[in-house]
Amino acid sequence: MDALLAAAAALAAALLVLLLIRRKRAQFGSHVASLAQPPKPKRELRIGAWTRAEVAAHNTREDMWLIIRDKRSGEWRVYDMTDYVEEHPGGYAILNNAGGDATAGFHGPQHPPTVFDLLPDYYVGTLVDP
Ligand code: HEM
Fold this sequence. Notes:
It contains 4 helices and 5 strands, in the order αβαβββααβ. Residues 15-21 and 24-34 have low confidence and may be disordered. The protein has helices at residues 2-36, 52-56, 103-106, 115-118, and strands spanning 48-50, 59-60, 63-69, 76-80, 123-127. The chain has a 5-stranded mixed β-sheet. It is an alpha+beta fold. It folds into 2 domains: 1-37; 48-127, Cytochrome b5-like heme/steroid binding domain (Flavocytochrome B2, Chain A, domain 1). The protein is elongated, with a radius of gyration of 23 Å. Residues 35, 66, 81, 88-91, 93-94, 96, 102, 105-106, 108, 110-112, 115, 118-119 line the site of protoporphyrin IX containing FE.
């Protein structure tokens, strides 16, 4: 009888451990998924040609644009990153140059090459007075 009880207890413990592992995996998995696929911008983005002054007006956590120069074409591009601020894995450092030129910071070693794939979703046009 004792042996039966011990076996039942061992089984219950094993099940509990399995359950905990599954839960941890689910949490970890969704974290990885959120890194790979940040949500698309919620707002409708208006594409245009902007001046530095116009971009500079969007310099808060709730309304945040960045200028990032495309290294290959040399084109000065503007991005409405508002909906990404809270998703940014590097936290509020993304606001360091809010409303201004973030080219140098964006090309920093902290960023994996995949950041380039994220940018097009936030594109709102070009800069007319670089
Ligand atoms: C299009 C997407 C992204 C943009 C526009 C962006 C932009 C920025 C900017 C402007 C900074 C500040 C750099 C500086 O002033 O020196 C920064 C910092 C950083 N970013 Fe991003 N980022 C993006 C995506 C990511 C991703 C996907 C990761 C990680 C997987 C990441 C990790 C970091 C880290 C670790 C920092 C430094 C944080 C600190 O200094 O405290 N970023 N990012």
